[in-house]
Amino acid sequence: MPCTQSRSPAGVGTQPPLSALSVVFADPFMELLEGKRISWKKLLTFFLFSFIFSFCLFASLRQFRTPKPEGYNSQLSTEQPQAGNGSTAPKSERQLTILLWTWPFGQRFRFSNCSELYDIPNCHFTVNRSWSQKADALIMHHRDVYWDREKLARLPRLPSQRWIWFNLESPSHSPNLGAMNNLFNLTMSYRRDSDIFTPYGELQLLSQPQPFSIPPKTKMVAWVVSNWRPSSHRVKFYEELKKHIPVDVYGRYHLPLSMDMLLRTVSQYNFYLAFENSQHKDYITEKLWRNALSSGTIPVVLGPPRVNYERFLPPDSFIHVDDFASAAELAQYLQELSKDTERYQRYFQWRKWLKPVLANGWSTQLCRACHFLQRTEATYQAVPDLSKWFV
Fold it and tell me: 98 - beta bridge partners?
């Protein structure tokens, strides 16, 4: 028997009036109270209507229940119930443990107090692998694990534990990416579309405009390079550029320059060649953020396309080699710009409102992971094809 009420044409009543319904439910009780005998027909009718009424009431209430989300896995939730009620505590109330599988490139460092960088509880970082079955997350640096995929795949792991693939190198210097497929839950890199974005630097908006003093310039173009490969695109471009404009090269195979003298030395130059060792999406490194911007010179960039740089920097804060038909044309522009004080200073106007900030070592990057994990619900996902995404 359907539980919904049928609608009848006007003037035709198919439902009993309220008084009739009250008689059906009330009469048997009244007769019992009065000590009268009840006919089997009335009693059967009473129980039948009671059953139908209860069934319809139960069915109508069920539609207001909140269904369990598809794919829900209670083991993946890291929220803990608060004492005294059934609500869940904010995720940020619980300190997380993060296991760093290896020191990146073997470089040891002190873990930062992430609560001082972000408005979150501090995370407990450790390199002790005895935590592998207790940690909320594992961070694995690609260059230190890419050769050992089978061993990693055999490691037991908690259902709620998140494995994070960490890499700051470009795809050209990240071997065996395909071996990492379906092994990790999250990505952590300089790519803006990573789950955890860890750039080499970024711009900080100032609360009010600040004057910027351009360091005195006495030289033309500087370049600091350690990985010198004559066959690389950037070295070939430099070889053409130096035919038309003087370029002072520092590094392992050129003029010596200590790290503590780098910014002071580069600040004397009008321009700095922020040439990346390979061209990939979002791969904009300390060559721009530290060597050029922190020293107060104009970067001449070679890397991803201009439109990619403009996702990180104002369009009038740098010079892109792709804007010129040849190295000779670029050299001519640099010569003219260095002699035109007003045009040269326009490349620094953005500094009134923006300040370049460097990623301060490995520990700062790890705190970005802490911040992400504290603010994000633990739900299952896998990175199926690293080599297809990380190009």
Answer: 125, 137
User: Catalytic residue numbers?
Assistant: 169
Between the alpha carbon of residue 263 and those of residues 272, 295, 373, 389, the distances in Å are 11, 5, 35, 35
Higher pLDDT, 377 or 9: 377
Return d(Cα 373, Cα 246) in angstroms, integer. 49
Confidence of residue 97 (pLDDT cuts 50, 70, 90): very high
Question: In this structure, which CATH number among 3.90.1150.10, 3.40.50.720, 3.40.50.11660, 3.90.550.10 belongs to the domain 203-358?
Answer: 3.40.50.11660
**Class at the top of the CATH hierarchy for domain 91-198+361-389:** alpha beta
Alpha carbon distances (Å) from 200 to 98, 139, 252: 22, 18, 22
Over residues 355-362, the mean pLDDT reads 94
Cα distance between residue 306 and residue 315, in whole Å: 8
Cβ atoms within 10 Å of 222's Cβ, excluding its own: 25
CB neighbours of 23 closer than 8 A, spacing ≥ 6? none
| Residue 299 main-chain phi, psi, to 5 deg | -80, 135
DSSP labels for 202-238? EEEE-SS----PPPP--EEEEEE-SS--TTSHHHHHH
Can 91-198+361-389 and 203-358 be said to share one CATH topology?
yes
